[in-house]
TrEMBL record:
The chain crosses the membrane at residues 30-46, 58-76, 96-129, 136-154, 174-198, 218-242, 254-277, 298-316, 336-365, 412-433. Keywords: Cell membrane, Membrane, Transmembrane, Transmembrane helix, Transport. It comes from the Bacteria. This is Gnt-I system high-affinity gluconate transporter. It comes from Pedobacter terrae. Belongs to the GntP permease family. NCBIfam families: gntP. Its main location: membrane. GO terms for molecular function: gluconate transmembrane transporter activity. InterPro entries: Glcn_transporter (IPR003474).
């Protein structure tokens, strides 16, 4: 009975978001309270569960996500993203332009959320397409495939970071495994798949030219890349130091302090404010305005993540997760495949990759531990499942269609198929990695 209530609540969540168009945050709150009541949780205990679910989920994430959004805005505002794209375009040339676009999306996509990255990089896609006289889809899809993979697979993006926390995974291992899985997914779904679309013509209703900064105002390429990747470099570097200097307690403790994701992001913002801001002649007050705007942009994302944590907490405290685990024991599907499948179904129903991943987390959490699933790979399995077959209930589907001037059919054959390739290739990579690691 408990499992039926769980499934009914998920259906209710899907209907509220996809059909009734209720705000996702409110939908999660309504479903969470309803689930708690139906599952027999005492009414006086529900507020405590709501607060715990929200607090535990956001407690270790809010600072990282907000600072990550600030860094992403600064990378774009300073011209660092433009510099990276320009250098890669000039380096790779006409023949390998799709590879340059993939690499640009890969690098810039580490600090940028997908929707932010799309809006900021779409002028570059138009500029390159016009300069080389190539179809927009052929030029743009590889870059957007990279952005999508980075958003769905790798920390510090919201869903992967939340999954790392909920599954008690190792951040560094998850990032390294994610890179191993992400690269083939990007290559196949990006430059290779784009070759099949080189004849796909589009009719954009707007003509976007990149609003480039003058060259003398751009940061150097080393500064641009290092500043954009600094959080990753700090975390990986301090992890390496702590392992090489394992006999020196003071060094290890200091490395762990600096390498903590929160500390790494704080340090990065302080450094990047100088390297991509005041050093380039920008006023500190203008940079602070950028940071405020960045925080506003991701406010609702934070609430959605927190509310998803509430639903997970309800499932855990009422024991329904254990009931589901008992049923799952009878299935012959491997835990990683099952986690991917559940998330993929939610993605088809809900549209949002972030919401699908966070909703699936509470359901598949029992697969970790007694079922022997690696929590680091579980993060990636849910992440890859959350990218499966973006279609008409996903805002990214419409962003791609409208900006590139495609028909519904063309968007399915390009964007939706690309997202499906990314998801399936990611799953294959995860299953292979699970066998060889």
């Amino acid at each position: 009975m408990d499992v039926l209530i769980l499934l009914g609540c998920i259906v209710m969540l899907v209907l509220l978001i996809a059909w009734a168009k209720v705000n996702t945050f409110l939908a999660f709150l309504i479903v969470s309270v309803t689930a708690a009541l139906l599952l027999g949780m005492p009414a006086t205990h529900i507020p405590q569960t709501v607060n715990k679910g929200l607090g535990d989920t956001l407690g270790s994430l809010a600072i990282i996500i907000v600072l990550g959004a600030m860094l992403g805005k600064l990378v774009a505002f300073s011209g660092a993203a433009q510099k990276i794209a320009s250098v890669l375009k000039n380096t790779f040339g006409y023949r390998y332009i799709t590879w340059a676009m993939s690499l640009t999306g890969f690098i810039v996509g580490i600090p940028l959320f997908y929707n932010v990255g799309f809006v900021l990089l779409i002028p570059i896609i138009f500029s390159v397409a016009y300069n080389y006289r190539l179809p927009l889809v052929y030029v743009g899809l590889p870059m957007l495939a990279s952005l999508s993979v980075m958003h769905g697979f790798l920390p510090p993006h919201p869903s992967p970071m939340a999954l790392v926390t909920q599954f008690h995974a190792d951040l560094v291992k998850t990032f390294i495994y994610g890179l191993i899985v992400a690269v083939p997914a990007i290559v196949i779904a990006g430059p290779i798949f784009a070759k099949a679309l080189i004849k796909m013509q589009s009719k954009p209703t707007v003509t976007l030219q990149a609003n480039d900064l003058p060259d003398h105002e751009l940061p150097g390429i080393a500064n641009s890349i290092i500043s954009a990747l600094l959080p990753v470099l700090i975390i990986l570097g301090t992890t390496l130091i702590s392992r090489l200097c394992s006999g020196h307690v003071a060094i290890v403790n200091f490395a762990r302090f600096i390498g903590d994701p929160t500390m790494a992001m704080i340090l990065t913002i302080c450094i990047a404010t100088y390297t991509l801001g005041t050093r380039l002649g920008k006023k500190l007050t203008d940079i602070m305005v950028i940071y405020v705007d960045a925080a506003k942009d991701i406010a609702m994302i934070l609430f959605i993540i927190g509310s998803a944590g509430i639903l997970k907490q309800v499932f855990v405290e009422t024991g329904v997760s254990n009931s589901l685990a008992a049923i799952l024991q009878g299935l012959t599907l491997p835990p990683l495949l099952l986690a991917w499948l559940i998330t993929a179904v939610l993605r088809l129903c809900l549209g949002s990759a972030t919401v699908a991943g966070l909703t699936a987390a509470g359901i598949v959490f029992p697969l970790i531990g007694p079922h022997g699933a690696d929590p680091n790979l579980m993060v990636l399995a849910v992440g890859s499942g959350s990218l499966f077959c973006s279609h008409v209930n996903d805002s990214s589907f419409w962003l791609f269609k409208e900006y590139l001037g495609l028909s519904i059919k063309q968007t399915f054959l390009s964007w939706s198929l690309m997202e499906t390739l990314v998801s399936v290739i990611g799953l294959i990579g995860i299953l292979i990695l699970d066998q060889v690691k």
